[in-house]
Design a protein that fits this description.
By secondary structure, this protein is of the alpha+beta class. The protein is built from four helices and seven strands, in the order ααβββββββαα. The protein has a domain at 19-48 and 75-139.
Length: 142
């Protein structure tokens, strides 16, 4: 009996198992929103939120590149204007998401409203309400 006859073969490709492009965009956006929610929760407590990412860094002793987990900061999507009103500008990758023509920022109001707005935005992504905006942001520049 040959080795290949013991294996189970399939017609599926990698792109079929990863889901549709819309599902992948939603998942990427939900992961980014999850980081923003954690950063907003930490800021509300007066702490700084960091997470670890794998990066290639140069070893000072050997001079070779090696993969290490290093801490990274989350760049907040929100800011406060001079009157004290908070705004939120969601991003897909490094592109801002335009919710309506010419409108890419959400007026949050006070700082206490930031977490509920971020959670509502995550629910909107799960419901598929931002699929067209995510598609436009994903295709920009290609």
């Amino acid at each position: 009996m040959s080795i290949l006859s013991k294996m189970k073969f399939s017609e599926r490709t990698r792109s079929q198992t990863l889901g549709s492009p819309i599902e992948r965009r939603r998942n990427k956006m939900l992961m980014a929103l999850d980081l923003q929610i954690k950063a907003a929760e930490a800021e509300a407590k007066g702490e700084m939120f960091t997470y670890t990412v794998s990066r290639y860094v140069k070893n000072t002793e050997t001079g070779e590149r090696e993969k290490r987990d290093v801490p990274a900061k989350v760049r907040p999507w929100w800011w406060r204007d001079v009157s004290g009103t908070y705004f939120l500008q969601a991003k897909y990758g490094n592109r801002k998401i335009e919710f309506m023509k010419g409108k890419s920022a959400i007026e949050v109001g006070s700082k206490e409203n930031l977490l509920p707005v971020l959670r509502q935005l995550a629910e909107a992504v799960k419901a598929g309400e931002l699929d067209t905006a995510l598609t436009v942001s994903a295709k920009f520049g290609k």
